Amino acid sequence: MRFIARVEVSLRPGIADPEGATIERALGALGFDGIASVRAGRSFQVELDATNKEEAQSTAASLADRLLANPIIERYEIEVTELS
Amino acid sequence: MTSRIGVVVFPGTNCEHDAVVALDQLGADASLVFHTETSLKGFDGIVLPGGFAHGDYVRPGAIARFSPIMDAVSAFGNDGGPILGICNGFQVLCEAQLLPGALQKNRGLTFLCKPTTLIVSSTRSVLTATATVGQELSIPINHFSGSYTCDSETLSMLRDQERIVLRYRENPNGSIDDIAGITNEAGNIVGLMPHPERAISSLLGSQDGNVLLSSFLHSSSTAQV
Prior knowledge:
The complex is a heterodimer of chains A (about 80) and B (about 220). Chain A has two helices and three strands, in the order βαβαβ.
């Protein structure tokens, strides 16, 4: 079965995020009111073959740990969906 | 004895020749080692130079960490061999977990290319062994992701074990505790963001890089690898 794993990587809370802070200021300058905070991150879409969704989830977590995120400063969230 | 130094070249590395010239000028025998090699036999010291290894994709150093040569680099370091990571090389060493912490985007999000004044904070490393604590060195930086960060336990450990080897006099990038360079517990693996190989002649504005590189060569010539 083929799955798509969307891996969202963002900085851990407490780690300075100059990119998010800059976007926050820019949004204020553009006149957007009520922006409470902005955190920047990046997203990866990995297509992979696995026997079931759990295996796809586990593989995605493993590759996020080893390459896509640096656990020292970043965290990630994974969303796996089956491709039809 | 002449120190044989291997300067590792990843795709996208761009400071390897500067490193070779700087080391040779100080009497070393430096040569390039491509990242697909798997052995570092015959070298007394290893330099991971600056640049954009593997395009800095994902994060600086994230993919370089998996280059074939890195197993040999880890083994060399674990055996006590002197390893110096400059700029992108420092990022590679952190990603490879040969040094603790991580380097993130500069505070202010600007690429910085300018001379900085560094203060030698510890001589407990191959890079600073022959320098003096408190000594000021003028050495340029050239980076976008040079803001050193780590958790508070790691920072306490680095301080307690005198592993912060160089600090900025005026913090240019938001590094925690003004850190410009750190070492591992044994003192044989060092990473720093500034470029000592670009401060080797008064023609370049400073010769202070020689203080660090000659210390590294001295350590390499005496290391038993």
